[in-house]
Amino acid sequence: MPRRLHFSPKLVEKRGQLQLVCRCLSILIQQRIRRRKEKRAACWNLNRRCFFELKKARRLVISGRNSMENNTQKRTSSRRQTPPHLPAAPVAENENSATAESKAATVQNEPLLNRDSATALYVQIADLLRADIDAGTFATDSKLPGENELTRRFSVSRVTVRQAIAQLLTEGYVVSKQGKGTFVSRQKFLHDLKPMRGFYDALVAQGVEPKTKLLGFGPASPPEPVKEAFGSRDGDCFQLKRLYLVDDEPIALVVSYLPPEASGLTWEQVNRNPIYVLLESLLNMPVAKAEIRIRARTAGTSVGQVLGLPSRAALLVMERESFGSNGTLREHTTFYIRPENYEFTLSVQGPLPVGSSIKNISGTSSLDRAK
C-alpha cells in the first residue's frame, strides 16, 4: 500500500495563505491588462474620429471650391450672353485694373521658351526680360517680378531664374538691392573715346543734364609720377574733387591735378566750369592731345562712401593725361565710374593689316602644318 503523507496543521494553513495571495495577484494583473486594453481602444477610437473629421472637412473644402468655381463660370457666361439691347452693367475701377493686369499677364506669357533649342533656358529667359526692358514694359527703377512669379511664368526652377537674373546683373540691365529685390537700372551712358572731349560734355551730348558737386579744391601733393610730369618739386600742384550726379544719383567721382598756375583760380570759377574750359579759357593752356587708360578695381572705403557703394563693389577707373602742343602735361585726372551706368565705345576704321597666323601650343602655326 502506498504511503500516505501527513502534513501538519501549520503547513496546511501556510498553503492556504499562499493560494490566496496568488489569487489576489492574478486578479490585480488581469485588472491592469484590462485597463491597458481600454486605454488603447480609447486612443484608437479617438484617432479614428479625428481621421474621419479631417476627411469630412477636406470634402467640405473641395466642395466649396468647386461651388465657387461653378459660380464664377456662371457669372462669366451670363455676362458674355448679355443681350445687345440691354445696357452694359457699370464695371468698378478695381475690376478694370484686374482685367488690365490679366491682359498684361497674358501678354507676358505669350513668348514661350523653346525647350528643344540648344540655347540654355536661362539665356532665353534673360533675352525675354531684356526685350521687355527695352520695350518699356519695365520702366527705369521699377521692380522686376520675384523669383516665384518668374518661376510660374516660365515653368522653370528657381535656379534657372536666378541664373537669368545673374546674367542681367552682369550686363548692367538690372540692379540688386539687398532686402528689396531686383530693379531695372538707369539709362546707360556711352562715352565715345574717339573725339577729345570732357566727361561733362560726353554726358551732355547724350541729352543728359548732369549735376556736379565740388567736393574740394586746393593745393595738394600728387603722386610722384604726376609731380615729376608737372615739373613741380615742392608739391604745389592743385587738386580738384568733383562728384557727377544724374537724377540725383552719383555716377562718377573725379579727382584732377592741375599745374601750379591754377593757384589763381577761384572756387566759383572751378565750380562752374569743366576742366578743359578752365585750362583753355581761364589759364590759357590749350590741350593738343590726351592719353586715356581704362582699368577695373574695387571701390574701397573712401570712394565707396562718396558713390554710395560697398567697399568691395567693382568700378571702372579711367585715367586721363592731357598735353599741350609742346608735350607739357596740362592735367592728370582719374575718373571713378559706376560700371552699371556707363560704357566706353571706340570705332576703328579699316582696312586692317593682316597679322601673322595663330600658333598653337606646340609652337607651329596652322600654315606650317598645311605645308
From TrEMBL:
Keyword terms: DNA-binding, Transcription, Transcription regulation
Signal peptide annotation: none
Protein name as annotated: UTRA domain-containing protein
SUPFAM superfamilies recorded: Chorismate lyase-like, Winged helix' DNA-binding domain
Biased amino acid composition, Polar residues: 64-81, 94-109
Domain HTH gntR-type as annotated: residue spans: 119-187
TM stretches of this protein: none
Native organism taxonomy: Bacteria, Pseudomonadati, Pseudomonadota, Betaproteobacteria, Burkholderiales
Segments for region (Disordered): 63-109
Single GO MF annotation: DNA binding
Native source organism of the sequence: Paraburkholderia elongata
